[in-house]
Inverse folding.
């Protein structure tokens, strides 16, 4: 299954802490389970999504998680 189609019919509900089926209204979408407002992504997925967008922009240095690299093979 294509992961994008998964996201297209489910949204993140912070109240249920999961991806849920939702009802769409004009401005917002609502969880069918709890009636709370749902978001397109949860925080982690949103950051991944954003990083993906930013990676497409030509930039000098890519901001990455600092991994200790001063351990050189001697
Ligand atoms: Zn919910």
């Amino acid at each position: 299954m294509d992961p994008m189609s998964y996201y297209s019919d489910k949204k993140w509900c912070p109240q249920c802490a999961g991806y849920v089926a939702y009802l769409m209204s004009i401005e917002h979408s609502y969880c069918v389970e709890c009636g709370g407002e749902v978001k397109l992504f949860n925080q982690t997925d949103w950051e991944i999504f954003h990083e993906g967008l930013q990676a497409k922009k030509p930039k000098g240095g890519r901001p990455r998680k600092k991994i200790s690299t001063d351990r050189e093979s001697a």
User: Anything to note?
Assistant: Helices lie at 3-9, 43-56. DSSP finds two helices and five strands in the chain. Residues 1-48 form one domain.
